[in-house]
Design a protein that fits this description.
Belongs to the bacterial solute-binding protein 1 family. Its main location: periplasm. Keywords: Periplasm, Signal. By secondary structure, the chain is α/β, with parallel strands linked by helices. It folds into two domains: 188 residues, 3-Layer(aba) Sandwich (D-Maltodextrin-Binding Protein, domain 2), CATH 3.40.190.10; 193 residues, Periplasmic binding protein-like II (D-Maltodextrin-Binding Protein, domain 2). It is built from 20 helices and 13 strands. It has a five-stranded mixed sheet with strand order 2-1-3-12-6.
C-alpha cells in the first residue's frame, strides 16, 4: 500500500471517528407540540436557530395535534413510558400532570436563569402552581374581537363599529344576517371555548376562581353569559356548524362568510393573510367588566427523562422564550410577546408597524387575568364542550345544564383532591 493511500485512509478514518464521537455526544430531546402550517414553520425556524447555537443538542420536534390531542396522547403514553422529553401544554391543563408528578419541577432552572427577569409578570405567573414552576411560557394569547370591515359596511355599519357590549354585538350581527343572509353570510361565528371563557369574565364571573378554586359554573353571571352565547346560535345569528366543530366558524370568517369572530390573538396572522385590509381587530367586549383570560401554552419537561436530557431540554425551553425567538414567534403568529425585550428587535418592530391590529391584545394586557389550573380544570374543559353543544343547539336549558355541570365538576374536584 502506498504511503499516499495509507495517509488518505487514515485521514478518512479520523474524520469518521470524530463524526461518530460528535454524534454520540449529541443529546436528543423529543418535543411534542401543537403547531402546524404557518405557526409550525415559525417553530421550525426557532428550532433551527437553537440547534445552530447548540450543535450538541438535537430537538426532535413532532406535531401531535391540538391541545386536547396532546393531553390525550400524553395520558396514553405515560403508562407505556413512551412520552416525550418536552411537551407543549395549555396553561390551564398542565396542573393535571404537575399534580401527578409527571412534570419536572423547573424552579431550580428558572430561578438561576436570567430569563426570569426578562419575562412579563403575566408570563412568569402562568407556569406556577403553589411555589413551584412547571412550565415556561412559549405562546401566550388573549381572545380579541375580529371583524370583516367589508361585510359590516355592506350591512350598513360604517367605520369602526361599537362592539363593546353583548347587546351591541347582537345588534351588529343581526344587521349582517338581515342584509346579507341571502348570500349565505352570517353575523357572527359561534364563540369557541377560549372566547366563551372570556365572555364569562367580561360579564363579571369566571368558570373556576383562579385563587380559591371555587367552581363558578352556576354563578348567576356565568349563566347570563351562557344564555347570551347560546342565543347567538338559537336565533340564527351564528351557524350551528361552528358549535359542533369550532374551526368551522373560524374558517367561514376567513372565507368572508362571517361578519364577527371572537378568537385567540394567535389567529391574527392567518386572518390578516386571508382578509388583508378588510380585517378589523377590537378588544373583547366589556359587559360591564373589561377582563380577558390569558391563554396559550408553555413548555414542560418530563420528570422521567434522564438528567442530561432534562438539562438539554431546559436549554431549549429557555431559548424559546428569549427575545430573539419570541420576536420571531410574535411577528409570524400574532401571539403575545412574553419577553420584555422582544418588541425592540427589528422583526417584532416591523410587525407592529406594518400589521394593523396586531397590538390590540398587547393593549388588553392590563385587563388580562390568569385562569385556574388545578387538576379538575382539564376534566371541566373537556366536559364543557358537550354542555355547550347541548345548550347552543337547544337540546337543554342553560340553567339546568350549568347547574348540573357545576355539581358534577365539584364532585370531580373532590375526587381528584382539589
Amino acid at each position: 500500500m502506498s504511503r499516499k493511500l495509507h495517509t488518505s485512509i487514515a485521514a478518512s478514518l479520523l474524520v469518521l471517528a470524530v463524526s461518530a464521537t460528535a454524534a454520540q455526544a449529541q443529546t436528543t430531546v423529543t418535543f411534542w407540540h401543537s403547531f402546524n402550517n404557518a405557526n409550525g414553520r415559525a417553530l421550525d425556524e426557532i428550532v433551527a436557530n437553537f440547534e445552530a447555537v447548540h450543535p450538541e443538542i438535537n430537538i426532535e420536534a413532532e406535531y401531535v395535534g391540538n391541545y386536547n390531542d396532546i393531553v390525550a396522547r400524553l395520558q396514553a403514553a405515560i403508562p407505556a413510558n413512551r412520552g416525550p422529553d418536552a411537551v407543549i401544554l395549555e396553561v390551564t391543563r398542565y396542573g393535571l400532570f404537575a399534580d401527578a408528578g409527571v412534570l419536572a419541577d423547573l424552579t431550580p432552572y428558572f430561578d438561576a436563569d436570567p430569563l426570569k427577569d426578562e419575562l412579563y409578570d403575566y408570563a412568569r405567573q402562568i407556569g406556577v402552581i403553589g411555589e413551584k414552576n412547571f412550565i415556561v411560557p412559549f405562546n401566550s394569547s388573549t381572545p380579541v374581537l375580529y371583524y370583516n370591515k367589508d361585510v359590516l359596511a355592506r350591512a350598513g355599519i360604517e367605520g369602526e363599529p361599537d362592539l363593546k357590549t353583548f347587546d351591541a354585538i347582537t345588534t351588529a350581527a343581526r344587521s349582517v344576517n338581515e342584509t346579507l343572509g341571502a348570500e349565505g353570510i352570517t353575523g357572527i361565528a359561534a364563540p369557541g371555548q377560549f372566547a366563551r371563557w372570556g365572555l364569562v369574565m367580561a360579564n363579571g364571573s369566571d368558570l373556576i376562581d383562579p385563587m380559591s378554586g371555587e367552581i363558578l359554573l352556576d354563578d348567576p353571571k356565568t349563566l347570563e353569559a351562557y344564555e347570551w352565547m347560546a342565543s347567538l346560535v338559537t336565533e340564527g345569528l351564528a351557524s350551528a356548524d361552528g358549535v359542533t366543530e369550532e374551526d368551522n366558524g373560524r374558517d367561514a370568517f376567513l372565507a368572508g362568510k362571517v361578519g364577527i369572530m371572537m378568537n385567540s390573538t394567535g389567529n391574527y396572522v392567518g386572518s390578516r393573510s386571508a382578509l388583508g385590509d378588510k380585517l378589523g381587530v377590537l378588544p373583547m367586549p366589556c359587559n360591564p367588566d373589561c377582563a380577558v383570560p390569558i391563554g396559550g401554552a408553555g413548555i414542560g419537561i418530563m420528570a422521567t427523562s434522564q438528567q442530561d436530557v432534562q438539562d438539554a431540554a431546559y436549554e431549549f425551553v429557555s431559548y424559546a422564550a428569549s427575545p430573539e425567538a419570541n420576536a420571531i414567534w410574535f411577528a409570524a403568529t400574532g401571539y403575545l410577546p412574553i419577553n420584555k425585550n422582544s418588541a425592540e428587535l427589528p422583526v417584532a418592530a416591523d410587525a407592529l408597524a406594518s400589521q394593523p391590529g396586531i397590538d390590540v391584545a398587547i393593549n388588553s394586557l392590563p385587563h388580562a387575568h390568569g385562569r385556574a389550573r388545578t387538576p379538575v380544570v382539564t376534566w371541566m374543559r373537556t366536559t364543557e364542550y358537550d354542555m355547550w353543544q347541548a345548550m347552543a343547539l337547544g337540546q337543554r336549558p342553560v340553567a339546568e345544564t350549568m347547574t348540573q355541570f357545576a355539581a358534577d365538576t365539584r364532585a370531580e374536584a373532590a375526587r381528584l383532591g382539589n
